[in-house]
What we know:
Strands 3-4-5-6 form a 4-stranded mixed sheet. The protein has a two-stranded antiparallel ribbon with strand order 1-2. Helix 2 packs antiparallel against helix 5. The model is unreliable at 39-47 (pLDDT under 50). It folds into 2 domains: 1-47; 52-202, no CATH class. The chain is elongated and about 95 Å long. By secondary structure, the protein is α+β, with helices and mostly antiparallel strands. The chain is built from 6 helices and 6 strands, in the order H-E-E-H-E-H-E-H-H-E-E-H.
Amino acid sequence: xxxxxxxxxxxxxxxxxxxxxxxxxxxxxxxxxxxxxxxxxxxxxxxxxxxxxxxxxxxxxxxxxxxxxxxxxxxxxxxxxxxxxxxxxxxxxxxxxxxxxxxxxxxxxxxxxxxxxxxxxxxxxxxxxxxxxxxxxxxxxxxxxxxxxxxxxxxxxxxxxxxxxxxxxxxxxxxxxxxxxxxxxxxxxxxxxxxxxxxxxxxxxxxx
Length: 208
């Protein structure tokens, strides 16, 4: 003989199952009506972070040790620091390409931050709006960068020239690695000094 409490439990479970069935059937009907009406909860296009603009990347070429400008279209944020990071990220993406003429591993993720600060008094005497760009690179980029005076100089000069091409008031550049001062990039290029973007810009198309 089935105990009374089990009968009650069975009836409760049966009622709950029927109620769930009704709810599921109603949800199915609503979904079907939305599909028939052509409604969709998914966005038709992905949101764009920033509008695409033309940027000048001054790319290095190991074949003749030259720096040559290239025009690329890419999303550029309005904030100057984020804008600087975006153009440098695309530049390092060029170097990470398997067919790059200046191969350096790492890509855009190697540019951790770019801070824009007031430049030195000497630079401000020539341009009241002169800025110092502090480029914070990842340790992996420095660790994997090919060692050699020429190849390291090309990387530094191309970064400086690219910053000047897209942010004309950037007159000076300092480099950090993981937020810390580092002696050299990969054994040769001095990362303790301040680089002048004007000198890098004059090296475009030449052998630095």
